[in-house]
Write a structure and sequence with these properties.
Helices cover 41% and strands 18% of the residues. It has 401 residues and is of the alpha/beta class. The chain has three domains: 130 residues, 3-Layer(aba) Sandwich (Rossmann fold), CATH 3.40.50.300; 150 residues, Arc Repressor Mutant, subunit A (Orthogonal Bundle), CATH 1.10.10; 85 residues, 3-Layer(aba) Sandwich (Trna Endonuclease, Chain: A, domain 1). Strand 4, helix 5 and strand 5 form a beta-alpha-beta unit. Helix 8 packs across helix 14 and helix 9 crosses helix 14. It starts with 12 loop residues before the first strand and ends with a helix. The mean pLDDT is 92.
């Protein structure tokens, strides 16, 4: 098991959201509860409902538990009242399956001061049904695939570039098995999140869209072109991207502008939450990654942007992530902005620092960026014309220190 960076508060109820397979249940059961002095017997963890010490647990992926609470959400109150001692924490796994249950949760927080841990792999159903998101009475945290820091000695760059960093990937030693797992993950996503939760009526165009969107990963989105390729209208494509975001499979990277309002009308980029899942969707897992190729550079850039995205969440750094592009075609891979602080980050997969690219970055950032970073696989940190040219690991550490 890997130690996760996210550190929820013990003083408040909280949601913990993330795509399926990011390890939410494992984190709660094997890291969070033990850190609070609660080690649940393994045989209990196999059950859909259990009570141990001062914790009660409900798994809504268990058909029997889900069916009972869906028919009668108030049963949650009666189950808690039947305990000899009021639990300090109540865990509800995959809470989006019964949005009405949150009204009962709200009441228990207010009247009985019980604290809840509410995990979920989709915000779409909660929003669609106008679910009670507890009005600030519960903090929100996110869990993503593993970062290079969380992986520690298990981190190997080329392995992660090929197969991503979903926790289950590291339970396989053979690359063939890792590929089979990722292909199965993609199929189960369509079945579990889209078909069973009835997020869409027609699945065939969405499956086609997943392939196209993976190929468009990290590129400026042209919704009209994507709609034409998939055979649907533009609004449907925009809905598809919204579904990916609300099931935590990816995020938009807007174009940078000092005015957030103006940046929102510019075309964004979209990044999948994991490089392995993205490669499974575009059916490229069979092809190895060759350093020095443009495709290797794209995957490396994707990985580094994911590292920034995850660390920004885990550290509550409050950076706004975007990219910078000019009408003349100049572009900066990543912009981190926070108040008057604007950091430009150029990402290169080579081991050599290219002075020409550094000068370009410096010129683009003039009068806009407060600091420029050139992150690559170089071995020795350098400062070239005021630009911090660092190995990517050191750059991440420095920016989030």
């Amino acid at each position: 098991m890997f130690y996760r960076t996210v550190k929820p508060s013990t003083q408040s109820s909280f949601f913990i959201f993330g795509a399926r397979g990011t390890g939410k249940s494992t984190f709660i059961e094997h890291q969070l509860l033990p850190s609070w002095g609660v080690t649940v017997p393994p045989e209990l963890l196999l059950k859909g409902k259990w009570s141990f010490e001062n914790v009660m647990y409900f798994d809504l992926l268990d058909d029997e538990v889900e069916e009972a609470l869906a028919k009668d959400p108030e049963m949650l109150k009666r189950e808690l009242a039947a305990l000899k001692e009021k639990p300090k924490w109540v865990i509800i796994d995959e809470v989006q399956k019964i949005p009405r249950l949150l009204d009962v949760v709200h009441s228990l927080i207010e009247k009985q001061k019980i604290k809840f841990i509410l995990s979920g792999s989709s915000a779409r159903k909660l929003k669609k049904e106008g679910a009670n998101l507890l009005g600030g009475r519960a903090f929100e945290y996110s869990l993503m695939p593993l970062t290079s820091i969380e992986l520690g000695d298990s981190f190997h760059l080329d392995d992660v570039l090929n197969f991503g960093s979903l926790p289950a990937v590291f339970s396989f030693s053979a690359n063939e098995d890792k590929g089979k797992f990722l292909r199965s993950y993609v199929r189960s996503y369509v079945k579990m999140e889209i078909q069973i939760e009835q997020l869409l009526r027609k699945l065939d165009p969405f499956r086609e869209f997943l392939d196209v969107s993976a190929q468009m990963n990290g590129k400026i989105l042209n919704f009209t072109r994507i709609a034409r390729d998939v055979g649907v209208d533009v609004k449907t494509v925009q809905l598809y991207y919204l579904i990916l975001e609300e099931t935590y499979l990816g995020f938009r990277l807007p174009s940078f502008h000092h005015s957030i309002r103006k940046s929102q009308i510019l075309s964004p980029k979209f990044y999948y939450f994991d490089v392995g899942v993205k490669r499974a969707l575009e059916q490229s897992l069979h092809a190895g990654l060759a350093p020095g190729t443009s495709y290797y550079g794209e995957v490396f850039e994707h990985f580094i942007i994911l590292e920034f995205y995850r660390l920004n969440l885990y550290h509550d750094a409050d950076f706004r992530l975007s990219f910078f592009a000019t009408k003349e075609g100049a572009e900066v891979d990543l912009v981190l902005s926070r108040g008057k602080e604007v950091i430009f980050v150029e990402i290169k997969s080579s081991e050599q620092i290219d002075p020409t690219e550094v000068r370009k970055l410096k010129a683009i950032g003039k009068n806009v960026a407060t600091q420029c970073y050139y992150l690559s696989k170089c071995k020795v940190p350098q400062e070239v014309e005021g630009v911090r040219c660092l190995p990517w690991q050191k750059g991440l550490k420095e920016i989030f220190s």
